[in-house]
């Protein structure tokens, strides 16, 4: 079982911000960016790796680098941090025009994660349940793909979601801009967990990881 560590509010530099955006002005915010995936798309065309599991691994890698995106709270509302969080992602059932949400344990090794993701997708591609896997853990964060449309903005309106601290990612259809291939990415963030600085750092690190795909895409 994955562990979580309590945060000592007395020494936590984010204590005042956390309390303000959780209790006084509870709010989430969204950011939509176009990531340059020119190198990644070219590398994927020359390999047998699948795009969606590859994108999912890259996002999970960056999310797990930073405490603010692994934040949770206890039942009384005390902040804590998971040692690791795992990606939950959507699998589309074209016949039913519905999706299932499945998850894979995060693995720092891309090849192992990719193999696990393919097995899960293959097993549940025709699932009729929204959550076909038993025993979904609490330390998940969500990724969904919207490959039928590009977008310049995407916002989730989460009713009563002010204790949902995990980031939520939405991927759009590739866009071409001259010789570049762009990926629309929307990120939904709880302001108590992270500020614009933290989200910008996450996005920039994801861009750097895509740019360095030659180092890990095997």
Please give the number of β-strands: 10
Q: Count of helices?
A: 6
Q: Specify the biggest β-sheet.
A: 7 strands, mixed
CATH level 1 class label: Alpha Beta
Tell me the distance between the termini: 29 Å
Write the topology of this structure.
Elements: E1 4-6, H1 15-24, E2 28-36, H2 38-45, H3 51-63, E3 71-73, E4 79-82, E5 86-93, E6 98-103, H4 110-124, E7 140-146, E8 168-172, E9 175-177, E10 180-190, H5 196-211, H6 213-216
Parallel strand pairs: 5-7, 7-8
Antiparallel strand pairs: 1-4, 2-10, 3-4, 5-6, 8-10, 9-10
Describe this protein's structure.
The strands form two sheets. Strands 2, 5, 6, 7, 8, 9 and 10 form a seven-stranded mixed sheet that branches. The chain has a three-stranded antiparallel sheet with strand order 1-4-3, with no helix packed on it. With 218 residues, the chain is of the alpha+beta class. The chain has helices at 15-24, 38-45, 51-63, 110-124, 196-211, 213-216; strands at residues 4-6, 28-36, 71-73, 79-82, 86-93, 98-103, 140-146, 168-172, 175-177, 180-190. The chain has a single domain (28-156, 164-216), classed as Chloramphenicol acetyltransferase-like domain (Chloramphenicol Acetyltransferase, 2-Layer Sandwich), CATH 3.30.559.
């Amino acid at each position: 079982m994955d562990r979580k560590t309590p945060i000592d509010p007395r020494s936590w530099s984010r204590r005042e911000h956390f309390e303000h955006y959780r209790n006084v002005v509870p709010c989430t915010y969204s950011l939509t960016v176009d990531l340059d995936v020119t190198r990644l798309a070219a590398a994927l065309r020359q390999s047998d790796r699948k795009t969606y599991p590859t994108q999912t691994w890259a996002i999970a890698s960056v999310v797990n680098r930073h405490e603010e995106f692994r934040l949770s709270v206890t039942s009384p509302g005390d902040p804590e941090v998971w040692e690791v969080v795992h990606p939950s992602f959507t699998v589309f059932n074209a016949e039913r025009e519905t999706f299932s949400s499945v998850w894979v344990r995060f693995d720092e090794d891309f090849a192992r994660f990719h193999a696990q993701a393919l097995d899960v997708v293959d097993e549940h591609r025709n699932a009729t349940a929204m959550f076909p896997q038993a025993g979904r853990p609490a330390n998940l964060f969500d990724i969904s793909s919207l490959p039928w449309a590009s977008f310049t903005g995407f916002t989730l309106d989460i009713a009563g979601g002010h204790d949902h601290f995990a980031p939520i990612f939405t991927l759009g259809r590739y866009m071409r801009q001259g010789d570049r291939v762009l990926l629309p990415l929307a990120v939904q963030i709880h302001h108590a967990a992270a500020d614009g600085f933290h989200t910008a750092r996450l996005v920039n690190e994801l861009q750097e990881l895509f740019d360095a795909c030659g180092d890990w895409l095997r």
